[in-house]
Amino acid sequence: FLDARGPRPEEKSKHHTAYRQPPPPPPISEGSKYRARPTKVPERSEAHKEIVQQPDEGGCLHGSPQMGVLCPTGCELRTSLLKQERSNKATIDDLERNVRTLRDSSMNMYDLAMYLDDRRRERQRYSDENTNIVTEYTTELEERHAFLKNNIDANIPSTLRVLRGVLENLRSKILKLQTAISTQQTYCHSECSVSCNIPVVSGKECEDIYRRGGTTSEMYLIQPDVFFKPYKVYCDMTTRNGGWTLIQNRQDGSVNFGRKWNNYVRGFGNIAFDVGKGFCETPGEYWLGNDRISLLTKQGPTELLFEMEDWNENKVSALYKLFTMQNEATNYRLAVSNYEGNSGNALMEGASQLLGENRTMTIHNGMMFSTYDRDNDGWFPGDPMKQCSKEDGGGWWYNRCHAANPNGRYYWGGAYTWHMTNHGTDDGIVWMNWKGSWYSMKRMSMKIRPSFQP
Length: 454
Description:
Layout: H1 72-187, H2 206-211, E1 218-222, E2 231-236, E3 244-250, H3 261-266, E4 268-269, E5 272-273, E6 282-283, E7 286-287, H4 290-297, E8 302-309, E9 315-325, E10 334-341, H5 346-349, H6 356-360, H7 388-392, E11 404-405, E12 430-431, H8 432-435, E13 443-450
Antiparallel strand pairs: 1-2, 2-3, 3-7, 3-13, 4-7, 5-6, 8-9, 8-13, 9-10, 11-12
Keywords: Blood coagulation, Coiled coil, Disulfide bond, Glycoprotein, Hemostasis, Secreted
Main location: secreted
Organism: Latimeria chalumnae
């Protein structure tokens, strides 16, 4: 067996001629289309490698030499891109700055949006709370409105009916009062004349009549001075052993005491009237007259008694052991002394509720008599805007202005208020030391008699 890879052995024969192999044809040596390869630069170590600058045009190498040569079109594209990069870099930087600015603005807008959202949620919470409160109060208001409406619907008609009844009743009473007033005005067009029988006994004053045997309290005729005509008075023959001449009396408001000077000088009112016993045993409301009172006190030492009663029938009194009223030349100046009683010494000490100068201005002792047309008080005399008599309702020995006001306006029921008055002042029948300024007495009287010798 032969080795397939070995040469065949040469056969030797005597008749065989040895074969000669012809020479081979020459190789093709012309017409090559390839140029010679460039000489390969021997590789250097990494430390000795040089950076090859790639040409801009005419054929440029790839970034990796092993990748071959780039086509010219790729190089031109690279060049164009590099030029565009240089021309657009500033624009890109501006865009980058604008992006950063926009980013910052967006963050601010985001923060603002988050803040506004928080505020919105907070306001929504407040709104919800307010809505709840409004709903609560609305419900309460509706309940109250319903309650009031029910009360009005249920009670007002009946209340109106009651008030209408009261109004009609008042109208009826007013008509009766107007009729009575009209009758009284017709009846009292002139001074009332007393038609009672006059007792036979008479005297200089009531004490003199008492000593002459006239011991019944009624109207008498007295004549203190023979040069003057006698006149009628009411004599109280029972109080404190009798003998009292009644010079002033208030009991029902039937007589107006807000009068002029001449009326107080002459006197006014109703001395007494008959209630069915056949004689004038009941005193009326009157002021005896300044001239008559002055003349009575000139007869000798005289004492003055105030008696007063409130609307609960409580009674007090004030006695002045000495009392003098001077004549018209002195404007009927007042002089009193030696107080006794339980009402308070209003004439000599003034209003006990006041202190210092305020209290002094209410002392009546030593003052002249004043009326609204004759200003003699201690409150800027002669000033028409400052007149005690005009403000306090009557004639009296006003200072600036009073602690006692027996001739003031008559108020039913006792207590009264400033808006019920004509001038906003305490113009009632007042004795401040007992009931204060805003309580008007039901009854008050002034009585005089000669002082007894001890």
